[in-house]
Amino acid sequence: MKALRWHGNKDVRLDDIPEPQVKPGWVKIKNGWAGICGSDLHEYLIGPKNVPFNKPHVLTGETIPTTIGHEWSGTIVELGSDIPDSYGLKVGQKCVVFPVLGDRNCVYCVEELHGACPNWGFLGYSGFGGGFAEYCCIDAREVLPIPDSMGLDVGALVEPLAVAWHAIKRSSVKPSDAVLVMGAGPIGIAVILGLQAQGVTNIAVSEISELRSEHARNNGVRHVFNPQKDDIRQRTLDISPDGCGVAVVYECTGVQAAMEAAIQSVRGGGTIVNIGIFEKPLTLDWNLLNRKSLNYLGSNIYTKGEFQEVIDAIADGRLKNPERMITSRISLDEGLEKGFHALLHEREKHVKILIGVDS
């Protein structure tokens, strides 16, 4: 079967590899759609970081090359033995995959603080296959059914939407709050959709790119600012109900200047949620954080319950039209040129590029 695999720095190849075989307790899935994540690009550009490159991953026993893609959906084509009926899985069923790997035994796995597990990993990074392939075999415990009414393309958005959903829940935002989203890339747009699903309407976005700013406007954001032209602090004071600044800032860029603007723009006693990944060490004005009595929260990954909450929110219409995130649909054969290279050289044009097995 065809699979996009990570071989090394700036080295992703379309390989022909054996089709995986199901085993007891596992499920075989014909993959449908898979999204290219910002972390895939980081790995491509500055890796190896997360892939098992110098020794086998402790949980999968695999090293590179590994099949990538951790935001994906598909259809169940075979069930292994010993799968409990309570999982509700059946052949022909649409599904998404919960991609986080953990040892299941440590205190952090029990608490579902997955990124802190000493043995953590990701399907699509660490082995066991991923979404950028024709088929995969996955532990049945990590397979979540989705409604027949949900398209597999939308199913592939559950993972990035869950990243945003987790961050929003951590922030304890209220519908009456004014909030600021730093960046209108994939996670920024996912945060916007998640906030709207929870009744938050006074949303501002800070974004340099005019094309990405337009994506924010198309997703219902009225206050879109350009930090190269606008005084972000003053603009956020203007839109806040009490003139003191926004209650919550969601930092989705991984850029030093954006975090500095976040500290300036959030009201005293407010919250900054760090979702973006910084490629360089971050320097903060800790004295200003202290003086303003700010809450600084890291937000990493999600829980399986939150994954299900996103599925439910899409199904019942609270997460409205998430397919608006999709800016391109391409085939596996086009994955490198029209996927990775497009995001590197035409990043502003895109929010989410999906790779489809049958496209």
TrEMBL record:
InterPro entries for this protein: ADH-like_C (IPR013149), ADH-like_N (IPR013154), ADH_Zn_CS (IPR002328), ER (IPR020843), GroES-like_sf (IPR011032), NAD(P)-bd_dom_sf (IPR036291), Zn_alcohol_dh (IPR050129)
Top-rank taxon, per record: Eukaryota
Swiss-Prot/TrEMBL keywords: Metal-binding, Oxidoreductase, Zinc
Signal sequence extent: none
Enoyl reductase (ER) domain sequence ranges: 8-355
Molecular-function GO terms, alphabetical: oxidoreductase activity; zinc ion binding
Family matches, as Pfam families: ADH_N (PF08240), ADH_zinc_N (PF00107)
Gene3D superfamilies registered for this protein in UniProt: Medium-chain alcohol dehydrogenases, catalytic domain, NAD(P)-binding Rossmann-like Domain
Cofactor(s) needed by this chain: Zn(2+)
PANTHER family registered for this protein in UniProt: L-THREONINE 3-DEHYDROGENASE
Family: Belongs to the zinc-containing alcohol dehydrogenase family.
Protein name as catalogued: Alcohol dehydrogenase
